Amino acid sequence: MPKDRAPTRIQKKNRKAILDSALDIFSARGFRGATVDDIASAAGLSKPNLLYYFPTKESIYLTLLEGQLDTWLDPLRALESDGDPLDQILAYVRRKLEMSQAYPRESRLFAHEIMQGAPRITDILSTDLRQLVDEKAALIQGWMEAGRLAPVHPHHLIFSIWSLTQHYADFDVQIRAVLPGEDPFAAAPDFVETLYRRLLTP
Amino acid sequence: MPKDRAPTRIQKKNRKAILDSALDIFSARGFRGATVDDIASAAGLSKPNLLYYFPTKESIYLTLLEGQLDTWLDPLRALESDGDPLDQILAYVRRKLEMSQAYPRESRLFAHEIMQGAPRITDILSTDLRQLVDEKAALIQGWMEAGRLAPVHPHHLIFSIWSLTQHYADFDVQIRAVLPGEDPFAAAPDFVETLYRRLLTP
DNA sequence: CGTCGCTTTGACCATTTGGTCAAACCAATT
DNA sequence: AATTGGTTTGACCAAATGGTCAAAGCGACG
Predict the structure, then answer these.
(1) Are residues A33 and B198, on separate chains, in Cβ contact within 8 Å?
(2) ipTM of the predicted structure?
């Protein structure tokens, strides 16, 4: 593995290729279902060569998880107290749905990890994520108490947004198998907007 | 493996124990994350002994998937054209949520399988499940056209029910990490009922 | 109580898989 | 062109894992 210097051109290229291939494979098969060999050949490298850039399979996986976590939570962070509450929520839902469409691999990566019991990120979930959610739930609660949104349990509201939007990424195969021809994401934005509009309009 | 006769008392007991332990482990770790040894010792058997009852790891997994699929779809099948449409939908949602609470392992088993691309059940999804969903979607569509339910895309309505209810089982860890103390399933029934009531009341 | 057929197991095997290592290979700088 | 340091690989290893098998154990029934 290279020294502690500025990464060379080759290092940048290969680390990026590895992480991209690894995301493909981890997101499709979970941590244990992915093999180092598969990731390596998907990245166009030999296994020892891959292990020259990342010391272990786990280190690749952790790099991905940690590297994407912030991005993944950005939409929720952007939920602000300014402006119309319903618009804020709808914008959040829309961002979340766009992320599921644009980054389904990331969605599945987290889904796998959480369904395994989230062994590598429980502490983050119960500290950072929990704090963020509590904060935004309080904001929503405030809107509801002010009569600016119809009242519902704010935490469960957030869960429902997660589940609904990520479902389109995580269960893509099922949706496509069931939906007659049409692109799952075609009608989804309208549907979720309608749903949250009717749920939350005071 | 035993001949083609009526199963003995011991066979019944052991097959049941194996399937139960296997459900524990497959649902927690997915197919590749589960080892035959783990399942065997969880069932209180040696590995060769387990393989005396099921020829392969895959056969255990398939037995579970197929054995639970019908049960898993029963709530949707029970959606009938009789009675008040909203009550029918709300009853479906309630049944589905109860199943997530009572059978989280089964929910996760299917979730894992589908997230892997559903290699073993794609055909069932695109035939049986699709037909069932189409049928019920048509029923819902009819209710909406008759003005007895507020109009939304019926397929996506069904997806939303799946995602919302199964989320409580599949992402249990995350929900518990985020929810301040309370039991996730305590407020869930009220929340989902409110959601679908507001969404669908004409 | 002996036999027959179901049940259980220790020992074993082949394959897969994560990871190591020394040697070869390049690329750029002097 | 020689040197230096990053890059690549073939060969190899140990552990894990799915599965086999012959032999031993056991239960019920005549």
Answers:
(1) no
(2) 0.93
